[in-house]
Design brief:
alpha/beta, TIM Barrel, 10 helices
């Protein structure tokens, strides 16, 4: 455990500040840390300031995209590493994402209020704080309003795609996210692809549009699934990424910084590829 390439701060849906994440990583003697907040790079400067010369902060982002195929929609998350935060194209995509998030919250609130769940934009924003507002903050507001016993129950009842109360969020496509990351000088990677049968074909399609890596190491992946994605990456000349996906010390997001062991060659190859 010398690096972690997937952590979230309170600038998206994490509970820790970038400062707290960095100081914890330093205590663990990590050498590199990537702040991969959803649809924002706002926390990177704070992380860099907190790091000093004790740990390297890799400028990164996780873009929540929607892939549409044959009338079906699915959420696909695209990670970007070593991105130029000041790139206008990347920031335009992130601004588009932030507006889509705001619209989604308003539409979801309207839907929930029809069911008697009394939440409003200010209550959701209070949970989001500085961060990219989203489903995690809506579920917290639902629990506070008494609409569900806990976060898991709120998510299951109101936020899952199969729920009658589900409101789809408009997002950029994975192709747009990959292009924006690549144009910003970054390395794009598909986040926690999971085990759905069609994902391999999607990865290969995205590869043709510039996807450069697969997040093989993730807490939702079994050892066999990790091996599967390592083989897929090697066969198709792609890089491998991984990380804890730390959101803070609570609930289903219990895995914390540095809790996923990653081969050192991952960082070596990423850095070499970025330099090309």
């Amino acid at each position: 455990m010398t690096f972690d390439l997937h952590v979230h701060s309170h600038y998206s849906d994490g509970t820790w500040s970038p400062f707290a994440l960095v100081r914890h990583a330093v205590r663990l003697h990590l050498k590199q840390l990537a702040i991969t907040d959803h649809d924002t790079t706002a926390g990177i400067a704070e992380a860099v300031a907190a790091a000093g010369k004790e740990i390297e902060i890799i400028p990164a982002v996780e873009i929540n995209t929607v892939h549409e195929c044959a009338g079906e929609r699915e959420d696909i998350h695209i990670l970007g590493y070593f991105v130029d935060q000041g790139n206008s194209g990347l920031q335009a995509v992130l601004a588009k994402q932030q507006q889509a998030r705001q619209n989604h919250v308003l539409e979801t609130i309207a839907s929930l209020r029809k069911t008697g769940v009394d939440i409003d934009e200010s209550s959701v924003q209070r949970f989001a704080g500085l961060g990219s507002i989203g489903r995690a903050h809506i579920t917290e507001a639902i629990v506070e309003a008494g609409g569900a016993a806990d976060l898991t129950a709120a998510y299951e009842k109101y936020m899952k795609r199969s729920s009658p109360f589900y409101v789809p969020r408009k997002s950029v496509s994975p192709y747009e996210a990959i292009e924006a990351i690549n144009r910003a000088g970054g390395i794009s990677s598909i986040a926690h692809p999971g085990k759905e049968a069609h994902i391999d074909n999607l990865i290969l399609q995205l590869r043709e549009h510039g996807l450069r890596a697969i997040e093989a190491f993730h807490r939702v992946h079994s050892l066999n699934r990790v091996r599967h994605y390592i083989r897929l990456a090697h066969r198709n000349n792609m890089l491998i990424t991984g990380g804890s996906d730390c959101h803070g010390p609570y609930g289903e997001f219990a895995p914390t910084v540095g809790s996923i062991s990653l081969p050192s060659e991952i960082m070596t190859k990423l850095r070499s590829s970025c330099a090309l």
